[in-house]
Amino acid sequence: MPSTSLNRRVGCRSEDHPRIARRALVQAGGMSLVGIGLSDLLRLEAQAAGNQRSGKAKSVVFIFQSGGPSQHETFDPKPHAPDTIRGEYGVAQTRVPGELFCEHLPKLAARSQMFSIVRTMHHVAGREFRNEHNSCTYLLHTGTTALPIGDTNASISQPRPGRVQWPSIGSMVAYAAPTDADVGLPAVIELPRANLMKYTGRESGLLGPHFDRFGVDLACRCNAPDAGGSCPNCYSHDDPNLDPERRPGPGPKAWWNNSSCRNPEFHLPDLGLAEGIGVSQLEDRAGLLRQLDEVRRSLDRHEQAAPLAAWEARRQQAMRFVLASRPGKHNPFDLTQETDATRDLYGREEWGQGFLVARRLIEAGVRMVQVNLRGWDTHQNAFRDLKGRLLPSIDYCLSGFLDDLSARGLLDETLIVMCGEMGRTPRISPIAEGGRNASGEIFTPGRHHWGDVFPCFFAGGGIEPGRIIGRTDAHGGLPVTEAFTPEDLAATIFHCLGIGPDREFHDSTGRPYRVYRGHPIGELFSQASGK
């Protein structure tokens, strides 16, 4: 199916629009509880618009490696390349014959039968866009191949009047695969440090703010400048190499104090309730609103029973989410409900706990969880930080996540996707000649921004495991087989969730657009299934 441009009208179907009388719309739009009102009617429109979903995945966990991990030091090593390309590490044999991962991913290499890797993701935007963080995060998270007309890498991260912005993949999921009516949580949740993740492309764009993701802050305070990694196995790119007195800590000569994240326990999310309003008061107010709703329903029951009943269910979701801030077994954010063995399986660090919350959220019915992993922008001291911090954490935490989902029978119905916004340059070089860290030591080299090729990890949710898809050249810099774009990544996620290729959405003026802009990556699916 060809891509649909923003200006192409693709037709409007009567079944895309629920029949809701103006009187009921005005009455329902005037009511709210913690921000719920007219937006829920729009969610009902989304539900009414779609056909029954037929995908195998019930939910998706998107793991964003913020900064762009190196393909060479993860899933596409080049052991026979010159040392300026190959790097400092060896390789690990996977369970896929002839295929190798980086030596510092041994647990994932031993589980390669549980997932597949696409090695030839790439950006096709101009070089001024495909090698920069702002542009690439927008392209990845919106599942597009070009910035909005009039935007540059600098402007895309700032508000701009008149911008026509494509919705994020998460917003599309919230629209086209909304949560079930009895789920008291938003469709798309982002964690664990939503306050620090200011990247572009996460917005709902043309869909409108009703389909925005919900970001929660769960992790401890981080005082590091330019921090990365999984607390307490975290670091700063500027950490000293040799000067022990300047190492992070509370010491008088330490260049930053990392004592706040030595204990990485998550806290419950702050839902922003007004000070002095207790749970009992909220419950009393909810009871009053229910009584008022019943009066309104009695007036309109003869013509609007079904839409108002569905709207009432959505309003109750908001109340349950507020009450979910309390500790207890029904709160998916409360990790004290998990056994020590399970928490150890995931790893007692930020990334492992993030994956564990993600598992609890999908069990609670959330459609999409995004887990952000900081620190993959390894321009300097790359081999020190990858070996000591980043690779051991992702190897352990992601392996535990896969094992737990598999043991619980959740992997088949949960799609897991992991990638960064770009890859890294084939050639290793300093970020700047003579660049120095906080102790005056010269930085060791790393790799730099590279949007021409990057790998993506897929597991569960209908994905055929144990496949390595795509080949890059001898230096790992360019695809030599079919390459795939963020449009194809988005289409793959939608396909797994059962969102059909003909699905449409409408902007605030009623103009229709196709949800799909690319094609599902066919090699990820069983040939026997015909997909």
Account of the 3D structure:
This protein is α/β, with parallel strands linked by helices and 531 residues long. It has two domains: 1-49 and 277-324, no CATH class; 56-270 and 325-452 and 463-529, Alkaline Phosphatase, subunit A (3-Layer(aba) Sandwich), CATH 3.40.720. It has helices at 22-29, 38-49, 83-86, 106-110, 127-130, 133-142, 169-176, 279-323, 340-346, 350-363, 382-407, 486-496; strands spanning 59-65, 91-93, 100-102, 115-121, 188-191, 214-215, 227-230, 233-236, 368-373, 414-419, 423-424, 449-450, 454-459, 468-469, 504-506, 512-514. It has an eight-stranded mixed sheet, with helices on both faces. It has a two-stranded antiparallel sheet with strand order 2-3. The model is unreliable at 1-41, 47-51 and 273-283 (pLDDT under 50).
The CATH C-level name of the largest domain is: Alpha Beta
**Dominant shape:** globular
Q: Return Rg in Å.
A: 24 Å
**Class from helix and strand fractions:** alpha/beta
Q: Treating each run of at least 4 consecutive H or I residues as one helix, how many helices?
A: 12
Strand order of the largest sheet: 6-5-9-1-10-13-4-14
Strand content: 5-15%
Number-wise, the strands total 16
Quickly give the CATH architecture of the largest domain.
3-Layer(aba) Sandwich
Please give the largest β-sheet.
8 strands, mixed
Order of helices and strands: HHEHEEHEHHHEEEEHHHEHEEEEEHEE
Terminal Cα span: 15 Å
Enumerate the spans where pLDDT stays under 50 for 5 or more consecutive residues: 1-41, 47-51, 273-283
What is the fold-level CATH name, i.e. the topology of the largest domain?
Alkaline Phosphatase, subunit A
Helical content band: 25-40%
